[in-house]
From TrEMBL:
This is Alpha-catulin. One of its GO terms (cellular component) is cytoplasm. The gene is Ctnnal1. Its main location: cytoplasm. The keyword Cytoplasm applies. GO terms for molecular function: actin filament binding. It comes from Chordeiles acutipennis.
Amino acid sequence: SQITTLINHKDKPKRSDKTLQAIQRVGQAVNLAVGRFVTVGEAIANENHELKEEMNVACIEARRAGETIAQLTDVASLDHPESDSHITIFTDKTGVVKAARLLLSSVTKVLVLADRIVIKQIITSRNKVLATMEQLEKVNSFQEFVQIFSQFGNEMVEFAHLTGDRQNDLKDEKKKARMAASRAVLEKCTMMLLTASKTCLRHPDCESARINKDGVFHRMRLALEQVIEIVTDSRPNGENEMAPISIYSAIKEFKNKVEGLRENLYFLSKENLSTMLEVILEHTEDFTDSAYTSHEHREHILELSKQAKMELEQLVSVWMQAQNQKTKDLMEDLEVAILKTCQCMNELKREVHSAATSLAADLLKYHTDHMVLKALKITGVEGNLEAVAEYTCKLSEQKEQLVEMCRLLRHVSGTEPLEITCIHAEDTFQVTGPQIISAAETLALHPSSKIAKENLEVFCEAWESQLTDMSMLLREINDVFEGRRGEKRVYLSLPRPGKHNANLKALKPVKLDTEEQAKIAKLGLELHLLTSDVDSETEKWEDQENEIVQHGQGMSSMAYSMYLFTRGEGLLKTTQDLFHQAEIFAAEGTKLASALHAFSDQVHNDDKPLLLLEAEKLISMCKQLQITAKTSVQGKSATFTKVDACILKTRNMMTLLCQLLPLCSKLLRKNKAGNGCLKAAPPWREDRIQTGTNTHTPERRAETFGIKSLENHVTNMTFLESK
């Protein structure tokens, strides 16, 4: 960011002291940042001898480039830099460009080398886990098992930390979701491995116990392999991953092609469009062929499929005519055909969504009592093999229903991460069902065995946990469909005409034209930079559930959507959307001010006045923004002035927020060091899914690996050994 500022600096004949000082500050900031960066790089090099030489060379290059930039921008002390013999950015602009290029290439090299080291650490950690797993699999005595499992637990904790950091660093949302799924499997399987292995050791001649244990080891190996595939971005034997196509993504692509005909009548063939529709209709057969789809939904899907074929035929007919003769009437007919085709696809999309989500809601409601699992536990303890066999059949039926539900939900999930979560859920039901059955059979054969009973409990808990996850997943899928979630980091508090504002219907929503966007671009860019600063500050807080942090993140997200509006992007399409967003932003600021007042009661008396003063400033700014956003205006010029005022006031509030967050963080640390009256949330939580109110996204759901629970397993080994 700083380098871009320097390179884009325009040479002006008049150079004020302020400009000269600003240039020098930027140069110094770059040099200091490079110095800190290189120090870390050198420390990494000292710990990894195989890459030490390469890393040190890249660090030296980066440090040299940073120093060159600092020298070339040392202009604040020069009254007339152009007449001085000292070389500066004004006399040698190409020197700055060369130094910047060298700096960026050397910094990139350091990052790539550091990344290779991280990947190697994860692979080494995985290899340790696999080696210990092999020992656990072959062990014959309980005492030996306890000793090796203690080592295994420690290695899994290390692997959890390494992969957790990697997951947070991943930019690809799809890879992040896959990593989260694999780590969730490893977390749950660690406890399963413990009880399944103990059961097998207690009952070495029991076939069902051996099958149960082998299933856990196999699943853990697959999950470990998938983590390495994601980290190294490779697959075994060089094969490419072929993800199944969902109806949603196929419809989206089809509509894009159809709407593209407005711009270009010749960019694709009619055969291409026909093939794309055929693929979509083939996927709808997953719904129409399913035994769990209602008769009503099946009929509607078949009707819409038939209608889609007819609409495409009409579209192709008009399209072919328009290619030969571009008359006004034909182009109007083409527009109508495009609209009707897209409308039909939207209705089909809505129908399959309704079919999948209504089935899921019914199934999840029906299975909330876990009657089959309870019956398996009871009949297992009774040693009633016949009854266990009866209930295992019912569990198999339940498994088939839930697997089908996951397959249909994947089609309508709306985003790639949610699709992956659906696939993970399907795999979990497929694998856990048979494991519960083998655990129940083992208990029925050994009804007095406490370890066999504990083992069945663990697998039943995994099933119940997955059903809970499915309820949250269903909510997320509905949120995406209804527009409550979508683009990353955008606060989706969009207005609905006539609902939030009495004047909304009377006002004609307008968009900014290109000239207006250009005028407001600078203000928007400042807003964007401020959101980055706020995000950076909130990430420093240990307790991410803190009310101040959550309101700060909410305000940052809303400000980001307003920045996107200035670029003509994002979900705020009209000026009316922006004004409503500004109202919501001000309301969020008021909530933050209330949180600050509550926080002030917990800080030392010396610090309280400053905090309350800042809170009052924020309240005043919120009121001003709300008044501006609610003021009715007419005419293009007045509307643009209002837009400008809203974004300016939002920027000022974000500037204040950038000052407030570090202040609160400092006071929080001061209080902790002083009397410890403020209690921070623990950094690792076992039950984030149950306790968190805003942890419903897949990324947030799986960002902890249950490291605490792994550590507890290891601690409990002492007790097990003595027992």
